[in-house]
């Protein structure tokens, strides 16, 4: 069975693959039972990359295999297969790990920018401010957040209100819901729009306050 890693390696950067070896009873194999470990790195054509053929690391379990330089050079192809063979108790076990290398020429996405700027984005000493978010029937929690500029009063049938939007980390609010309560600087807002998923781990929620009948 081939294990497919979802986190891509960066071009020419260090990439660590942690391997934990289990015996036929699903128990972690003690180091004293292991006679040898060999690993080989190939590209998507089966060609050995950077001379990494039957490399013999110091025996450890778990074992961290650190790849770098030519190992993760995108010019050598976007795909890598790491094959690890363990000899223990006179038995041989081989595991394969498949991963990909990020194309350095690919344009940056919103997710890339968010990953780089997330710490500053949610830092209360820079852009963010503390708010109280109360899920329906839940307990109030405090999160760092940003409130976008409010839009003018809007008409919705026979009612009017003021609307805006906020950004909240998915780690703070896993499942925001319609009509959840958001308190910002003492003013209570209600969530009126929830996207289908959190982009780069961040929810952008539409909020509303001062809802009242149109006079």
Give a verbal description of the structure.
With 215 residues, the chain is mainly β. The protein folds into 2 domains: 2-100, Sandwich (Immunoglobulin-like); 110-213, Thrombin, subunit H (Beta Barrel), CATH 2.40.10. It is 6% helix and 43% strand. It starts with a strand and ends with a strand.
Give a quick summary of the entry.
With 215 residues, the protein is mainly beta. Helix content is 6%, strand content 43%. It has 2 domains: 2-100, Immunoglobulin-like, CATH 2.60.40; 110-213, Beta Barrel (Thrombin, subunit H), CATH 2.40.10.
Strand order, largest beta sheet? 7-8-10-13-12-11
Proportion of helical residues: under 10%
CATH architecture of the largest domain: Beta Barrel
Name of the level-1 CATH class of the largest domain: Mainly Beta
Instruction: Provide the CATH topology of the largest domain.
Output: Thrombin, subunit H
- What count of helical segments does DSSP give? 1
Provide the low-confidence segments as ranges: none
Assembly category = single chain
Count of discrete structural domains: 2
Distance between the termini: 68 Å
Cα gyration radius (Å): 26 Å
**Strands, count:** 13
Beta-strand content? 35-45%
- From the spread of the alpha carbons, the general shape counts as elongated
Structural class: mainly beta
Most strands sheet: 6 strands, antiparallel, barrel
Question: What key attributes describe this structure?
Answer:
13 strands; Thrombin, subunit H; six-stranded antiparallel β-barrel; 215 residues; Immunoglobulin-like; 2 domains; mainly beta; 1 helix; elongated; single chain; 6% helix
């Amino acid at each position: 069975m081939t294990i497919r890693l979802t986190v891509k390696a960066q071009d020419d950067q260090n990439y660590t693959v942690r391997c934990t070896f289990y015996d036929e009873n699903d128990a972690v194999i003690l180091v004293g039972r292991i006679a040898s470990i060999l690993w080989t790195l190939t590209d998507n054509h089966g060609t050995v990359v950077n001379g990494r053929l039957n490399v013999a690391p110091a025996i450890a379990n778990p074992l961290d295999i650190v790849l770098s330089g030519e190992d993760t050079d995108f010019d050598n192809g976007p795909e890598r297969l790491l094959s690890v063979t363990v000899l223990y108790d006179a038995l041989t076990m081989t595991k394969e790990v498949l991963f990909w290398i990020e194309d350095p020429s690919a344009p940056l996405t919103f997710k890339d920018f968010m990953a780089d700027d997330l710490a500053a984005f949610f830092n209360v000493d820079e852009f963010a401010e503390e708010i109280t978010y109360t899920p329906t029937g839940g307990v109030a929690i405090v999160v760092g957040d940003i409130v976008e500029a409010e839009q003018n009063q809007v008409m919705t049938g026979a009612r009017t209100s003021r609307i805006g939007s906020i950004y909240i980390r998915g780690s703070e609010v896993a499942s925001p819901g319609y009509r959840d309560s958001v308190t910002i600087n003492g003013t209570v807002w209600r969530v009126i729009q929830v996207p289908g998923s959190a982009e780069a781990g961040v929810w952008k929620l539409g909020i509303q306050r001062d809802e009242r009948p149109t006079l």
